[in-house]
Amino acid sequence: MKPTWTSDCGRVTLYLGDCNEIVPVIKPVGVDLVATDPPYGIKHPCNYGERGRSGLAKCNDYPYVEGDDEPFDPALILSLGLPVILWGGNHYASRLPDSGGWLVWDKERPDDLDQATCELAWTNFVKGVRRYKHLWNGCMRATEKGLNFHPMQKPVALMEWCLSLRWCSGFNTVFDPYMGCGPVGVACVKTGRKYIGIELEPRYFEIAKRRIKEELEANLFAQGGR
User: Fold this and answer.
1) pTM for this one?
2) Secondary-structure class of domain 5-222 per CATH
3) H-state helical runs in the chain
4) Count of other CB atoms within 10 angstroms of residue 165
5) N or C: which end of the chain has fewer CB within 10 A?
6) Do 83 and 127 touch, CB atoms closer than 8 A?
7) Phi and psi dihedrals of 130, rounded to 5?
8) Contact between residue 165 and residue 131 where contact means Cβ atoms under 8 Å apart
9) Per-residue pLDDT tens for 4-59?
């Protein structure tokens, strides 16, 4: 199966399609780490604008997140036999092996907010529970202010933090079968890693590709065009 897009430098490979169909064909070779943010199976609404979600700033309506209307099965990811960082693991923990290695993203939101104040990632190789504090509360953000691409968007800074954990040292190629709007891919470019991403929704695929290309170009410019 040919990639949908490969960067000129060869460090980024993207596939548009269903990871359940693509993974058995490409059998990711040379991958050191799976880091991904799959649909959680929570039927998360994507029509923020239509529902008038916020009175502070204009909200966007987003393309539907494929697969979020049914329970998520992590079997495909676990079958790869690799180190894994799997966001949203608390929503399907009964289908994951026991692990003491969880990552906590503290969004620094008020405790009385009706939305989650933290998000969790299951891992099978990190030791202990690790926490990262990064403000992400509607339009109030520590980074990426006004850059709204996905209803369940994660900060690139969060993914950079994941990759900076000492247990990820030496992991040079990252596989992301649920790419979304591409924060893992951008983080991989920033940290000098190779990246393989898959996304089912064409609109999110194009957003992710654009963001990754922009980061590759910025990275090349920072190196003096080499």
Assistant:
1) 0.90
2) alpha beta
3) 19-26, 48-51, 75-78, 156-164, 183-190, 202-222
4) 18
5) C
6) no
7) -120, 140
8) no
9) 999 999 999 999 999 999 999 999 999 999 999 999 987 667 665 554 545 444 55
